[in-house]
Specification:
298 residues, binds 2'-monophosphoadenosine-5'-diphosphate
Amino acid sequence: MKINGNTRILGVLGYPVKHTLSPPIHNFLIDKYKLNSIYLPFEVSKNNFEKFIKGISHIDNLSGFNITVPYKVDVIKHLYRISSEAAAINAVNTVKINKNKMYGFNSDYFGFKRSIELNYPKFKFRGKRVLMLGAGGASKAVALVLLKSSIREMVILNRTYKNGVRIKNELQKALNDPNITVSQLDFEYLKKSKLLPDLIVNTTSVGLKKTDKALIDLKYLKQRKTIIYDLIYNPSRTKLLKSASSYGLPVLNGLDMLILQALKSFSIWTGISLEDELIKSVKPLRENLKKILKSQGA
Ligand code: ATR
């Protein structure tokens, strides 16, 4: 990589950003396509966010940036336009700058959808029953993908019941009569409920810490084909995924979603075709990231 006066800047804005894997992903792609660009972390604390975001679009050689925790919602009011998906999710994780105007997108939508299609190509969303754990920031994109893909039924389990109801109400506003039920999180939910889920997705932060336990007991699953998807990728196998594997259930962690959302953002910035070109980088990126995560003790 050679930096000169024509180098274009990309980056990720958040707080903290010290552990982000986005720079290795995007700089790999920059190298692969021999672009005169660089992708950097922008760590901006809450006190400085407003000043930073007001000024950033005036850097003429800034092509765009990702946004991560805690600014995915706060950024929206500073943007010139946002995509319909970002509006429905009410979160922006990708900004493209064109003629000093900022346009917002949400590539998590694509990342979640494509990660399932890529790993379980025979799984068809239509008619499926889904159990979603959590109702926080990550749950909205997940729920929208699933409900827009004509699943039959979604049950949201959440520790704080009213947060589950809030997400349900937001989804009902964005979609036409989705079939959503909210229940209080319960470790023995699968024992007590009649639901036979085809897919269980953990969107909570539970599992990030090695000491975290699984939120539900998979022992009571009445079938052995339910896909257990945990959006967490570090650790690579949470307690939920370990228990799923021990029952012979198909599993997926969040690494592919991380990669695929990054590819979508990169395509938005560069115009490089996602399905014909960028998708080829999934495999090498998986290997690179696994090495990095291993070196971090994941
Ligand atoms: P956000 O993603 O909105 O920033 P978060 O703190 O990461 O917030 O929480 C995301 C989800 O994880 C929420 O559904 C949260 O449940 P609550 O609505 O009850 O807060 C869930 N969550 C976080 N810690 C949890 C825990 N220890 N047990 C169960 N659920 C938990």
